[in-house]
Design a protein that fits this description.
197 residues, transport, Vesicle transport protein SEC20-like isoform X2
Length: 197
């Protein structure tokens, strides 16, 4: 009986430990979700947080029900032992011990089941955190690449603007050179025609 009490206490401690871990992970997820810049990422994370919170509440409810069931079972066994007295006390004590052992075993199994569920929840939350951290890193890297591309595009735009100005300047110079050339040719032709006349 004492070893099962120890086992029950160990299960309760594990449940409390997992409960605290889940609360911390859910809180971290919630904070990470609120810090997201992209609205769709924020909504997805907050939805995941809500799902984990509901699971956490479900686990807590199951734990409370298991505790309540064990207390009710122990109360019923005590009532029965008080109601039966005298000669049947030895027979009833044996039944009570068997009932207590069965009740203790059932409670321990319930607590272990809850402990396993909470452990799975912690594992799932950790996997979600890892996935979110990886996707956040990918988003940051993509953002850095976009910034680099923006710089390259702006440099390209400046170069194109510069070459467009040079092209205009070159056309103007070619036009002026052609005009000077034609003016020189007309001047020479005019001098020669007047010379012959």
């Amino acid at each position: 009986m004492a070893s099962s009490d120890v086992h029950v206490r160990i299960c309760e401690q594990e449940i409390i430990k997992y409960d605290l871990e889940i609360k911390a992970l859910v809180q971290d997820l919630d904070q990470m979700g609120r810090e997201q810049d992209k609205e769709s990422d924020k909504l997805a994370l907050l939805s995941e947080v809500d799902r984990h919170r509901k699971q956490m509440v479900s686990n807590q409810t199951a734990w409370r029900k298991a505790n309540l069931a064990s207390k009710l079972s122990l109360d019923n066994l005590e009532k029965e032992s008080l109601l039966y007295g005298g000669d049947s006390e030895l027979r009833h004590r044996k039944v009570t011990k068997e009932g207590l052992a069965q009740s203790s075993s059932d409670i321990t199994e319930s607590l272990m089941s809850i402990s396993r569920m909470m452990s799975q929840q912690v594992t799932q939350s950790e996997e979600t955190m890892t996935t979110l951290a990886t996707s956040s890193q990918a988003v940051l890297e993509t953002n850095d690449e976009f910034k680099a591309m923006t710089g390259t595009i702006q440099l390209g735009r400046k170069l194109i603007t510069k070459y467009n100005r040079r092209e205009l300047t070159d056309k103007l110079l070619i036009f002026l050179a052609l005009a000077l050339f034609l003016a020189t040719v007309f001047y020479i032709l005019k001098k020669r025609f007047f010379f012959f006349l």
